[in-house]
Amino acid sequence: MIIVAGIARSGLTVTMQMLHAGEYPAFEPYNIGEIPWNACKGLAVKLVDAQLHIPPRGKKQKIIILSRNLTQQARSLNKFFGAITGLPLTSETALIRSLKRDYAVIYRWARKQRTLALKFEDIINKPLEAAKAIAEFSGKNLNIEKMAGVVIDRTPECHPELLELRMIKG
Predict the structure, then answer these.
(1) Which residues of 31-46 are buried (b: 16+ CB within 10 A; e: fewer)?
(2) Stretch (H or E) spanning 147
(3) N or C: which end of the chain has fewer CB within 10 A?
(4) Is 3 helix (H, G, I), strand (E, B) or coil?
(5) 65 lies in a domain?
(6) In a domain, 88, yes or no
(7) Which strands sit side by side in the sheet containing 62-67, from one edge to the other?
(8) How far apart are alpha carbons 143 and 145 in whole angstroms?
(9) Which residues 6+ apart lie within 8 Å of 12 measured at CB?
């Protein structure tokens, strides 16, 4: 199993799309925090807000930890929740403080695991290199070109007019 862990808007979805495109079986159909860990062996599992939903202790796990520039991530979170609710989540400064605390929890948990740390910016700017790193970390013969091909050609900054819920590369 590979756990794709991070905080919302850090590149979790694009990483899962990359794994799926590379033909690594992915598991995502669950409510946040409700993961049937025993049924996920051999799968890539998306762990949103990992600081709140740390998996059960046991054997070492492979974890891809995603992070993003905190200012851009805070802007993206506010944009995302604003699109859903019509209101921003909170101030950018408060979100950044919260993100720092939450990432500290994730890194403490992951310290004793096998990890690959990836930055959203590196996935967006260097998708082929990110795909190679993910494939190597997985230990499987994944299709690197297809993995890199799912990454939308854009800058990593949070764009006010771009909501990355579902886009097709054109």
Answers:
(1) eeeebeeeebeebbbb
(2) helix 144-149
(3) C
(4) strand
(5) yes
(6) no
(7) 26-27, 44-48, 2-6, 62-67, 114-119
(8) 6
(9) 4, 5, 6, 46, 47, 48, 66
Residues ≥6 apart with Cβ < 8 Å to 165: none
Q: Which of 22-26, 49-53, 85-89 shows the lowest per-residue confidence on average (mean pLDDT)?
A: 85-89
- For residue 97, the model assigns a pLDDT of 95
- Tell me if 154 is assigned to some domain: no
Task: Name every residue whose Cβ is closer than 8 Å to that of residue 93 and which is 6 or more positions away in sequence.
Answer: none
Which is nearest to 79 in space by CA: 94, 89, 66, 93? Answer: 89
Question: Please, are residues 137 and 116 in contact by the beta-carbon 8 Å criterion?
Answer: yes
Query: 40 with 24: CB under 8 angstroms?
Result: no
Q: Which of 6-20, 42-56, 74-88, 156-170 has the lowest mean pLDDT?
A: 156-170
Number of neighbouring beta carbons within 10 Å of residue 167: 10
**pLDDT at residue 169 greater than cutoff 60:** no
Whole-prediction pTM: 0.88
For residue 58, give its domain range: 2-69+113-149
134 inside domain: yes
